[in-house]
Amino acid sequence: MRRAAAAADEPAVRGRPTERRLAYSVAVVGNPNTGKSTLFNALTGLRQHVGNYPGVTVEHKTGTLLLDGGTRVELIDLPGTYSLAARSPDEMIVADVLVGRQPGAAPVDAVLAIADAGNLERNFYLISQLCELGLPVVVALNMMDVAARQGVRIDTVKLAAALGTPVIGICANKGAGLPQLRAALRQALQDGHAPTGVRPAFPPPMCHEVDALLEELDRHAPALKRRFSRMEALRTLVDGGGCGERWVGSVIGDGFCQDLEARRRRASRIPLAAEEVRARYAWAKQVLAGAVERPAHVPPAGSNAIDRVLTHRFAGTVVFVAVMLLLFQSIFRGAQPLMGFISGAFDSVAAFVGGHMADGALKSLLCKGVIGGLGGVLVFLPQICVLFLFIAVLEDCGYMARAAFLMDRLLACVGLSGKSFIPMLAGFACAVPAVMATRTIENRRDRLTTILITPLVSCSARLPVYAILIAAFIPDRAYVGGWLTLRGLTLFALYCLGIVVAAPVAWLLKKTLLRGETPPFLMELPSYRIPDWRSVALRVYDRGKAFTVRAGTVIIAVSVVVWALSYFPHPPRIASQYEAERNAVIAAGLPPDKLARAVSALNREETGAYLGQSCFGRMGRALEPVCKPLGWDWRITMSVLASFPAREVIVATLGTVFDLGGGKGGELQRRHEALANVTWSGSNRRLFNVPVALSIMVFFALCSQCAATLATIRRETNSWRWPLFSFTYMTLLAYVGALITYQTTMALRWGGV
Amino acid sequence: MHSSNRTRDGRGHAPARTTTLDKLAPGQRAVVQHISGVGSLLYQRLLEMGVFEGVEVAVVCFAPLGDPMEVRVHGSHLCMRRAEARSVQVEVCA
Prior knowledge:
The complex is a heterodimer of chains A (753) and B (94).
Chain A: H1 4-8, E1 24-30, H2 36-44, E2 48-52, E3 59-66, E4 72-77, H3 89-99, E5 110-116, H4 120-130, E6 137-142, H5 144-149, E7 153-154, H6 156-163, E8 167-169, H7 178-191, H8 204-219, H9 221-224, H10 230-238, H11 243-252, H12 254-267, H13 272-289, E9 292-293, H14 302-310, H15 315-334, H16 336-355, H17 361-378, H18 381-397, H19 399-412, H20 421-426, H21 431-437, H22 444-453, H23 463-473, E10 478-479, E11 484-485, H24 486-511, E12 523-525, H25 533-567, H26 572-587, H27 592-613, H28 615-627, H29 634-642, H30 649-657, H31 667-676, H32 690-702, H33 707-717, H34 721-747
Parallel strand pairs in A: 1-4, 1-5, 5-6, 6-8
Antiparallel strand pairs in A: 2-3, 3-4, 7-9, 10-11
Helix pairs in contact in A: 4-13, 8-10, 8-12, 11-12, 15-18, 16-17, 17-25, 18-21, 18-25, 21-33, 22-24, 23-24, 23-31, 23-32, 24-32, 25-33, 26-27, 28-29, 29-30, 32-34, 33-34
Chain B: H1 2-11, E1 18-20, E2 29-35, H2 41-48, E3 56-62, E4 69-73, E5 76-80, H3 82-85, E6 88-92
Antiparallel strand pairs in B: 1-6, 2-3, 2-6, 3-4, 4-5
């Protein structure tokens, strides 16, 4: 009856799948931090996949569970929630899937409710709501071992009798109780009836109004295209301004909402939400009273003692800094060897393929465009995996919430919350995993703001750019007996620049584009526990796969486009010109070592000539007037343009354009000198000086030169709008920043007279 | 809302014992009397997390920078900002 309209085109009766529906659909629902994902993983193993419902960015996981007797169950892992009174997008998904409103989701046949055995009172608040859905419910009490250690004794038989539905005690991470849980689930699906136990006692006027509202909604059923359950009527009445009210109001008209207000006033003198909470907690107390025994004197939990250290003013800060340093070091340095290995491997593959192909556009496309692009995707994997390994462990053991707790005050200054800290820290290594890490931020506006400012933080790909320009142009001066160097200070200043700019940008975004009510920072600090390694491994795998598949496609496409821009038109006259020059050199009869050097110099020059003639070269010349105020000529402009898809490319491009030769070890010095001696075309004036180097570095510090980040933002926000916005504002910011830097430093005569 | 707070404060018979949650010291326990801001998201969240009239709460600690604070309620630990705790009126336990 709940889905009368839906049933018209869906002949399967709930609880009895026919040929048209091969599997039962069961939703796993519970409070956050109850081990929901651990249970889900333990039940489904690797038979699971991640998906998005149409039109929402909240991800959900589904997995297949085979019960005895061949019953197939499609298990849906829904986001953790404290209540069905939906406010956030996550909670709305839970509510919508459970009542069958969610497009793209199969109607739910039963609910698998998971609760923390150590904190039954609050967990049973949600369970009381779930029991009113009119669906079969199986309650799993997780972490029975922890509760037992605290001296809590739970009689699941008595509890099941009081609830009128099966209750199974489990330890999801050890697999204990899972066979019983499967059996109970199978039985519940076969019987197909909702819990029969006592219900929360709402005050009579409130019950009366719910009934009256349900009648009213039934009258409008044709317009609403479906019939409401009593639970939905209750939610519409209680959740003032909630999604139920808005949706019904938009169908029936504003009169309905005014009418609803009158109903609310009639239902209770105190706010209905408070009335509901009171009734449900009273119910929980009553249900638990006969079935749960707690020791008279509760010994302080282990978590309390750990917390006294970890949130302590001094010790807590020290531990926090140590953990963050370890995290930072691991992504920054720990992933480095693997990244080197990956890029090395792809270089060898490209060289191997190149060696077996005739010169031409196809070879260049394959080696530089496709293989280079693929390498450019996979090179991020080590950092992504290391970061998500950390995040999964920190989240599972309960420290993530403490980190947010410790850093909240700082981030509140710019309108964010402590939850933005870890993504921003990760941004120092790489913006790609950092953007993916913002998933831990529930509030949409906070999450978007963090996504938009994280790319401003100086990532590791900026370091090679800083390194070559600082080494070439910043004088090697030491202060304070060698403890401070001008070069080190410059590098430090560039790293600070990102943060210094990110703060006002975040503040501005929160005041303008992403303005809205400050979300409550009301967060549970979960008990400390040992992470479940299977869940951790699965999370790392999921994130790595999501990046490779979804962002990777975009990155490879972009790298092919960039290859084309730097390859075409590829005029044949350059080839014939250099071929002639090479022949002349060979004919001159130089000794072998000199000959080799001369030929390789010619080869480099040829590559530079092609680049100068390419689309990028033409764009560089066209844009020179725009970039002259930054101190750049067309060659610098072209190098910067070519590095938009990946900023570290500029090191190689500068090498090609200014014919610096491949520099290794001892040649580095020569390279820096060569760079310093470059002059403006057709003049003796040096192209590079301190202001130019600074303006390039500031530009690189602030600009969004990373296709991978933009592709990840697109994937995480499910729209092209935000990557476009991010690109535009950062490029503008970079231009203005570089302009100010160049003009002021020139005015200060840092460029020499 | 703030004015209603003030009248409640003024009406309290033992003003020293009635205060708001953010003013408690670490280790102090209190019973929730009233939550202001009916209908707001914060109000709803506080209720769902089990903070409502008649419930005992205890302040565990404050973050090193003075905000937010950690509160124990129904055996679980919650973190909230002082500004949020200000809307929870409590009676301090002896």
